[in-house]
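Query structure, 86 tokens:
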């Protein structure tokens, strides 16, 4: 990034018993220089990629939880529905 050192500021947030880690808050430029348009573009691309990856992980986690919930409900309701069909 052309000599400008930047540091990503992150925080962890707690929601219930789970932590949402590495939530990006801002960038701080340590060199004291204003970033160029190319530097800002590179940061925006990196942030967009990270957001896309986090979104994909969250989507995967959601569907896995849905799948497990369906299995649990089928175990409970399967025998009941089978008895009703008789």
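Result returned for the query:
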């Amino acid at each position: 990034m052309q000599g400008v050192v930047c540091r990503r500021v992150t925080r962890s947030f707690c929601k219930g018993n789970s932590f949402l880690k590495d939530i990006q808050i801002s960038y701080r430029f340590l060199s004291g220089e204003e970033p160029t348009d190319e530097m800002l573009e590179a940061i925006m691309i990196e942030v967009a990629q990270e957001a896309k990856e986090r979104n994909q992980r969250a989507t995967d986690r959601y569907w896995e939880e849905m799948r497990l919930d369906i299995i649990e409900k089928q175990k409970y309701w399967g025998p009941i529905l089978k008895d009703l069909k008789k």
